[in-house]
Amino acid sequence: MKKIGFIGCGNMAKAIIGGIVGKNVMAPGDIIASNRSRKALDYAEETWGISVTADNLEVAKEAEIVVLAVKPQFYGQVIGEIKGVVQESQLIVSIAPGKTLAWMEEQFGRPLKFIRCNPNTPAMVGEGITSVTPGDKVTETELARVTEILNSFGKASVVSEAMIEAVIAVSGSAPAYAFMFMEAMADGAVSLGMPRAQAYEFAAQAVLGAAKMVLETGLHPGALKDMVCSPGGTTIQAVRVLEERGLRSSVIEAMIACADKARSM
Ligand SMILES: NC(=O)C1=CN([C@@H]2O[C@H](COP(=O)(O)OP(=O)(O)OC[C@H]3O[C@@H](n4cnc5c(N)ncnc54)[C@H](O)[C@@H]3O)[C@@H](O)[C@H]2O)C=CC1
Ligand SMILES: O=C(O)[C@@H]1CCC=N1
């Protein structure tokens, strides 16, 4: 038996596998993945030395924890394929938006140990944040085990199912907004004459440092912003323009659109 198996080995499965293997939480021999196309499997085999297969059923039969890591539109098809072979002892993990615990039970046709998780791609560098929502058949020990695995590539936090869309908006999808922000900052630096590669380095380090200050000082982000804004200085001019162009409401409206979409999937 493998400890964990992934059906679908794309961006998210690779981020999680990279985190687990990178932090030595599991040996590569304890991990198995299947995928529709061969290329992703060759990559996973060569990069981490995990077991790979073209057969989803092999993962469903072999893994104690089965992670459904395909796009939401393929969930129904994959569940139809594996539902006959999964056992009551296995944990079935959904990482897709919109696939509720009730929907999973209906699709599998019986109550099993379902867990909804919402990871994000920074798992790839050990800085992910993942929400965990256990179904009612999952024991405290099993929840602790899954949380330990998720903590290996960042942080994990238990949330109620009603919070999942907020989680997707504030963390699952959020790296994309942060990348856009850094890209825009680098564009600004390039327009001020800085070479592109150096601009990305400065922009990314400034964001990393600011994020660490929020997490490590415990101070309100507004107070940290005020510490940067010298009276009559440069920063307050940038803040004035960002407010004028609607940074805050753009972010809030974007997240509401994100959550609405997640709810509909
Ligand atoms: N990419 C992200 O930042 C996040 C993604 N998610 C969720 O994770 C899930 C996976 O997303 P990604 O990894 O980004 O997608 P992806 O498209 O990179 O990977 C999915 C993989 O599944 C394979 N696949 C498709 N149908 C299959 C089948 N029937 N059997 C076996 N393999 C099959 C594809 O070939 C592909 O390699 C989705 O449900 C997504 O909503 C959740 C949080 C963050
Ligand atoms: O864009 C998506 O649908 C997925 C869910 C969270 C992040 N990526």
Can you put this structure into words, describing what you see?
This is Pyrroline-5-carboxylate reductase. InterPro entries: 6-PGluconate_DH-like_C_sf (IPR008927), NAD(P)-bd_dom_sf (IPR036291), P5C_Rdtase_cat_N (IPR028939), P5CR-like_CS (IPR053790), P5CR_dimer (IPR029036), Pyrroline-COOH_reductase (IPR000304). The protein is of the alpha/beta class. It folds into 2 domains: 2-160, NAD(P)-binding Rossmann-like Domain (Rossmann fold, 3-Layer(aba) Sandwich); 174-264, ProC C-terminal domain-like (ProC C-terminal domain-like fold, Orthogonal Bundle), CATH 1.10.3730. The chain has helices at 11-22, 38-48, 56-62, 75-82, 101-108, 140-151, 164-172, 174-191, 196-217, 221-228, 235-244, 247-264; strands at 2-7, 31-34, 51-53, 63-68, 91-94, 113-118, 128-134, 154-158. An 8-stranded mixed sheet has the order 3-2-1-4-5-6-7-8, with helices on both faces. Helix 7 packs across helix 12 (247-264) and helix 8 crosses helix 9 (196-217). The radius of gyration is 21 Å and the shape is elongated. The site of 1,4-dihydronicotinamide adenine dinucleotide (NAI) has 28 residues, from helix 1 and helix 4.
Which series of helices and strands comes N to C?
A: EHEHEHEHEHEEHEHHHHHH
Shape: elongated
Strand content: 15-25%
CATH superfamily of the largest domain: NAD(P)-binding Rossmann-like Domain
- Rg computed from alpha carbons, rounded to a whole number of angstroms: 21 Å
